[in-house]
Input
Amino acid sequence: MSIISLINQKSFNKTSLYCQIKDHIISMSPESGEGFSDVLVLKDEYRIELRFEWFDMEGYCAEKKYTITVDGDQFEITTSKLAWIIWCESVEKIESIKLKRQVFEVLLIMFAYLTKSNIESITMDFFTDFLEVVMTHSSGEVGISKRLGIRGVGVFYTFSPKKINQCCRKLALKPLISGFTKKITYRELNKVTMSVADMSYADYKEGGSFNFLSLDIGKHYINYLNDSFNDAYYSAYAVAQVEKRTTDVLCGRVESKINLTLIRFALMGNHEGVLPSSVLNNKNAYKEIKPKVKKLYEMFYKEALRKFAIFNESSLEIMIEKLGINSCDDNKLFIKSLLAIELSNSDITQAEIIEDYTSTLGYKSGNPQVTLKKFLAEKDALTNLIVKNTPVVAPDPNISKISKYSTAVGRYGFTQIMALLGWRESEYTFPNSAIHLFRNDDVVDQSRYPIRFNIKWKVPKTGGETKIHREITLTSYILLRMIQELHCSNDEQPMLYKSEGNMSNIFNIASKANIACLFGWKQFVDCYTPFKDLDEMGLLKESCSKSVLSEYEKERLIHLSELYKPSAKTQQLLEVRNKVKNDLKILMSSGVFEFNVKKQGASLINSYVNKTMTMDYYNIWVDRLSHEQKEYMASISLDQKLDRGSVNDVINTIKSGCAYPTPHAFRHMWAECVYRRYSGDVGWLIRTNFKHFGEQFYRRYLREKHMQTSEEVAKRRVVSSILSSHLESMKHDENREFAGKMDVFLRRVLKQTKAISPDEIGATLKEFAHLEIADIKANPWGYCMLKNRNQKRANCAVDGIPQRENAGIEFCIGCTNHLVEQEHVAFIILNVSNHVTTLKQPLPMIFKMESQRIVKETIKTLKQLDKNSNTSRNEKYIEEMQVAIDMADKLEV
Output
């Protein structure tokens, strides 16, 4: 590598800077190489190889030579020499060779970025993009390439644009990067992590996992857990109660391992003929224990039915029928609230609630108002009928071993609570005594929800030991009480997990929330009914093309084909199934489902290094690790202790892009639910918990600083989901469920989308959302998808600025930003009813013009919805509104 002197042919290697760097490298005691050599190898507990020669290769040498000033003289030096100078300056106070390697890596990416972008300096215009490249790319001999996972946070601990800038200035060289402060760097890093990882930089620094459990996937998991929890709850409750009474069951026998095993076999209803060899010598004891266990099991199974079966949807329907009130959501919620009072120790009574609200309930013709006496009589009669007619079912062996059965079912419930509340993992330690019931004074919804529920408990991350009031919903409260009863917890113990071991440490949740939300995932992937149906339908179609199907198979194929017609909804379900199934093996290889520390993180890395990992898992790792990570792994000695940052970096790379549940993922999903709560197929989670509460209920949480990131992520995901649904419906649906002027805009734009692969489609939609959609707001009458362009044309704009806080049907209907789904129609009709009434009144037209505009726009929207969906579902509303318009015209004449 020749160095050309510009002044007096003085050699650069005679300068003080050159000598300082040579001495600096000697002080590092390198295994091989020296200052300004092509390759430098350093070793402590790690061995790193720094290939400075790469800087002179085509992918990195933005300038073939740089002119610098040292000791008052000018020199032309190669890119590698400049990299040596900047690297030595940057690592001067760094001891760890691993961190020195990270500085080197950033320099490689910086020079590659300058080369690829054909720029001399990374200014503010390029800084965010550069940081994204650092986070998502790795270096190699020919240049940088996209890495599969996101780089670990450690690389940014040593990254200092200011030092690089100062070094360039010392050399009288135009800075390669602006001297960005830490504040600016963190701000831009936050933008990048939000964009590429759906999390804040703060969460990224804490080692947050980059999973993509959006509502489109998560709703199916919660549906599965809800069904599984409800199916298994009564058997799990009975198992827990029997296990609590082992002393009574054993009748003086010792609580030995063998005797406890006999009880568990009895709980499963096993005949003594199938006992394992280890307990064959205890047949007589088993014959004596089994009937006692059976009697207790049946008694407690029925006790659970008596306590909670009446909250089922079918039971509420019967209750409403018996009370003579109209079957509607509002009345169901009212009855459910009355029943929930019995689960509490509150001073609020059913009598006072009935007295205050009985006149507001909608009654069937000729039925008297509900009284406390009638309510209690019908409730008791229905409860007795349920207990009598419900068969006692044995525990489901597919859920878990009987010894962990009640714990497993409790975890299903705990995970649902995480989805319903969206809190941090550390905040789920509250006992029942922390929950307080109070009367609802809000006139908007007090007849539906006469009672409200508050949890006064610690929020450790933001409030320390201070107890803070946080409201929960009726659905959450009932589920919490079911879980508490399942765990046999008293009112001072945590409700969501069993209090075992040291009672002074019962509020240390450790990893219980994370274990709970992962517990049912593998079963969900393998056993979720829609997934199994799609698998079966695929096999039947394949068999049909090869051979003749039996009559049963033909009927089954017809049924499944009708159930899963070609549509955007079915296509989305197929994509969810394919993703979670493909991801499962990857997640298993990364130890996500291993709760034994010996099978996690560092142990997995060692098994990869030592090649003791199964070949399937090993191949997954080879495919997903970056070149840089493979080099790092190759430098690890046997049984070497690994630092947490490196472990997180490797494991996060392996599972990058995979969908799986974590408490943090549920926080994002909760915020997404807020924006989708008026939408269509969003599953049990929204139907029962989100749809019936107003904006204020959710704003209280979303305004909190720690939820702001989740809200931004949620907005992007909702926009992405809506765009994706539009695109899929255009490809697969004869019946589309959208309307409004935003629908027209989206159809026109998305028709031009030529992307082929799912990745291309995702990238295209992401770019479109970024360029075209400024914000999204959920209203009962539709979405406001505010476009970046022409915001002054929004109906609610004042002086050219949208005033979306004033949102109402009169502004939104007919607005260029308005998007409607069929589920919004009921709210639209409710909100335009006054305008329809106004048109029928004998008033001068000048007083009816605004109502006429609103009703006409509503008719257009409903006609568009019917046309797109090939139905006439809204015809009756259209006819009624048209009658009102015609009447207004006649009255004017």
About this structure: Residues 309-389 form one domain. The first strand starts at residue 4 and ends at 5. The chain is about 55% helix and 10% strand. Confidence is low (pLDDT under 50) at residues 1-9.
